[in-house]
Amino acid sequence: MMNVSRYLRRFRDNERGSIALECVLVVPMLMWAYLSMYSFFHAYRTHSVNQKAAYTIGDIISRETTPIDAAYMAGTREMLAYLTTNNVSDVAIRVTSVKYDANLDVYKRDWSQKLGWMPALGNTAVAALNDDLPVMPHNERVMVVETFAKYDPPFNTGLSDHEIHQFVFTRPRYAPRVLWSSD
């Protein structure tokens, strides 16, 4: 029995290889932490870029004095894809002209157009946006620009694939409203 306890004590006190063992335990956790930080930063950056792109498109549309059409919408979708470094098939855009009726205290849709996988907004859907739209005077109009982009995180560290949705409203700048041309 004396030999066994002596060997166990010697094994316990032996420090050779401890750094290698610590590396084997710590390096995977450090790598996971680094990849997680990178993934979270990438997600926040992607959301920020999508928000800036939505504001840019909203500002461009708000400056229009001539009616916009399907070709204009296709161009805004391509610009959204370019600004967010996505494929055109991974982004969608919906533009809605909204008018406020103070007599009925309701928001109404003038027109709504989309390119992508989501539906255009009807009057019921616009009325449901009551909490998201600004307080406006009677018969005032705003352009609501919604952008959608598919997000796939660069590493599998806990973030899941999801859709980035931005909701931006802008008052028409140089005309009382932005018109839609169905030609």
Supply the key terms:
single chain; 4 helices; 4 strands; elongated
Count the beta strands.
4
Pairing-aware structural class of the strands and helices? alpha+beta
Question: Helical segment tally?
Answer: 4
**How far apart, in Å, are the first and last alpha carbons?**
98 Å
The major sheet is characterized as: 4 strands, antiparallel
* Helix content percent band: 40-55%
Trace the largest sheet across and list its strands.
2-1-3-4
Q: Rg to the nearest angstrom?
A: 28 Å
Unreliable runs: none
Any overview of this molecule?
By secondary structure, this protein is an alpha+beta fold. Helix content is 42%, strand content 22%. It is built from 4 helices and 4 strands, in the order H-H-H-E-E-H-E-E. A 4-stranded antiparallel sheet has the order 2-1-3-4. Helix 2 packs antiparallel against helix 3. The radius of gyration is 28 Å and the shape is elongated. The relative contact order is 0.18. The mean pLDDT is 92.
